[in-house]
Amino acid sequence: MRVQPVTRFENSRERALELFAEQGFGQVSLRKLANHMGVSTGTLYTHVAGKEELLFEALEEHYEQLLILVGRCARSGLTIQPTQRLSRMVGVAYRQCPSRFLLACRERHCLRPGHLTRIDSLRRRVADGLTMSLVGNKADGLAGEVLLNLIEHLPVWLAGEGLPADEQTSLIETLLQGCLQGLRHQPQQ
Q: Key word Hydrolase present in the record (predicted)?
């Protein structure tokens, strides 16, 4: 099987997301975005319909990746606990693409209604997967939402603290575990 070469646009797409995360989606003009990516505005338009589509695609990939992570953490027969697996995987995912976590936290509201509906649907699937794999049937859908919000925000919050990656992962694990214990002991309504 022949692998397609990575285009200049694909190479610079992460840089575009970093610019959105750094300056805010609404503050980045299309011209500034193209310039930052090292492509012309015309080239940018040959790949995406606009900057909102670029944000949408990044967030869609982000939540699809979280779905995969949740599925992996739920697998039985592995030697470490699901919370530990999830914490480690979230830490790795954050280190690979920190701008996607930041954009998911701060810029999701900038999407058009159709795109926002798709992202909200993916978020619901991630939250439901978290509920089933980590909390179990004792909790309602709110438990998954709480966990998803923690997973989305914890790496962003901790990044500014200057902690080494292994300490960040350990702290994420501790906080998720504490949250899970609290959710598991909530009385049924």
A: no
